[in-house]
Structure formats: structure tokens, C-alpha cells
Design a protein that fits this description.
about 90 residues, alpha+beta, NE1680-like fold, 4 strands, about 30% helix, globular, DUF2024, DUF2024 family protein, NE1680-like_sf
Amino acid sequence: MTTSYVFDTYAKTAEGRKIHFNVVLDEQDHQKAIAYAQHWLAGIDLADAVVTPENCFFYHSLEVPADMRAEIDKNGYAIYKMEGCPK
């Protein structure tokens, strides 16, 4: 099994709304986690949301479930949505 790395991430929209999610990837690479967070936000029409290095940090590592593994294999990352994320 592959170990994946979870980056706890917060973004703030131009309207001041806070979005909380995890970026999960197969490398413990802080810069990639930020880039993937921004890519995902742009894909959900929140390109104006700001993610800073202080708001995206390594949290822990784990073996992810099959559906998340498929997403990482396809896109290079997966997003685990938490507070303020669209359904």
C-alpha cells in the first residue's frame, strides 16, 4: 500500500468566507499541496480564494480508501471536504 500525506488547508474567499479541506497526495511536498489546493479551488469557481503557506500544513500520513486512491492516481491529489466546501 502507498502512504499518502494529508495537508490541512484553509482558504478565504474574496467575500470573506472560510473553506476548510484536506489536500491528500503521495508526496510530502508543501508547495505541491498549495498548488493543488489552488487548482481545486479554481475548478469549483473559487479562483479568488487565497491559500497561504501558513494555512496549508502537513497534518499526518495514512493509507487512503480506494475511492481517494483512484482520485490521487488520476489527478495527482485528492480533496477531503470539510467546513464551508460546496457539496
